[in-house]
Amino acid sequence: MEIILAKDAGFCFGVKRAINLALNAANQIQNIYTLGPIIHNPQVVKKLADYGIKETENIDHIESGTIIFRSHGVSPKIYQKADEKGLKIIDATCPNVAKVQKIALQLQKKGYTLVVIGEKEHPEVKSILDTVNENAYCISSIKEISKISPEIDKLGIVAQTTQTLDNFRKIISKLVSCFKELCIFNTICNATLSRQKFSLQLAKKVDTMVVIGGYNSANTRRLTNICKKVNKNTHQVEEASELKINWIKDANIVGITAGASTPSWIIEEIIDNLKSMKK
Ligand code: SF4
User: What's the whole-model pTM score?
Assistant: First the structure.
């Protein structure tokens, strides 16, 4: 059985940077917190906890020490609060996310009503919405366009960095027919676009596709859905123990891809397990 790993599978630049910043800090100082899990992968979060990096959902729970802002970014209010509390800040916001926040603010200043195409509850989207004081719409499907007031003249549009190009395109083409003036920024990041493109290409030519990543990772879920559209034998796993022999027993070629928050050691473990299952 041949196993092919998709190009650009696993950690993206922003996630690598965040983890490196966290590990460097853990080597030098103590009393470090991340606001929410540093990435959406429970196995990595557990490893970082072993290095003494604690996770909290609420900045009010931190009395002193260092706070790491994860790659998804945080709202200006959180920066302010960290300052007021005298916390040392390590800002691991991905530069791509920081750029979306900046564009959102500029669009608002130019009089556009902001529309974020993404998942309202995702921390990255929340950070973008908070940057513009929540004076924005957030939509994730064509159906939700009806939430936008038809009275609005000027719409400024950005995307969550991990959206699919397909969904972004569909929503934009509908918005074009409903509103007069649109200022559109395709802010889906290049790492996302290439991972989705290579995973789709691979899923089309293999018998079974395995997508690796945390169940709480939105970009991994999207990757699974993209692959499922062209290959119904697509399965998402978080760990090697979830692999099933049924998935590969008749397969000649198995494709592997992984979300942006999946470390290489989990990918390697899964490839090794697949090889030994078919011996
Ligand atoms: S997916 Fe893109 S925007 Fe998000 S952390 Fe990775 S590189 Fe940055």
Answer: 0.90
